[in-house]
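Internal ticket - ligand job 196, S-adenosyl-L-homocysteine:
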Amino acid sequence: ADTGPQKERVVTEEEWLQKWEMGNIGFHKEQRHPLLQKYLDVLLNGKSGLRIFFPLCGKAVEMKWLADMGHTVVGVEVSEQAVKEFFSDHSLPYCEEPVPEISGAKMFQSTSGNISLYCCSIYDLSSSIVGKFDGVWDRGALVAVNPCDRQRYASLMINLVEKNSSYLLVTVSYDPNKHKGPPFYVPESEIKSLFG
Ligand code: SAH
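stdout (structure tokens):
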């Protein structure tokens, strides 16, 4: 399954930072994702006060939405600009502090305490640092991960979720011969082998 034309393609962290600097962020949407609205009940399972994880979070507006519902939101994003824009776009006061376990990483937390965004690579995280999650919203995350890192990403995500958690994953279906990505094409068969 891993033999597609995008297999060798790599987007570096530096290139992601540049996208943010140039405002080349067509992936960012001002409106809440319709599929999150549609499958919200699946994510929440009727429970309140959940811990929800946003891998490769950018400045996704759904983080504010879920936090306003009373859930605790944790995100990870390499671009400090993206993290700061999230808080300023929503006029949320925040504080920032170093993450002792990860050299160079910072954690930005809303003053109300319910949104914590780690500014570092997702591969620096572990459950001993961020704990485990009851739900995951994976949109623009697995599909943004370099194809060579998918296995590592999936193993990490499996490690970060509680037993009875829900993982909502959005992928993009298209002909990988026609676009180089990201977003990358991740076939259903590969999702099955990655996540079991
Ligand atoms: N999920 C967001 C953003 C999708 S774009 C949304 O729905 O809008 C992918 C994001 O991942 C970019 O903001 C990029 O800066 C960030 N990113 C790329 N590689 C990363 C990594 N290894 N660790 C953390 N963030 C990363």
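Auto-summary: The CA atoms of residues 29 and 60 lie 7 Å apart. The chain is about 30% helix and 20% strand.
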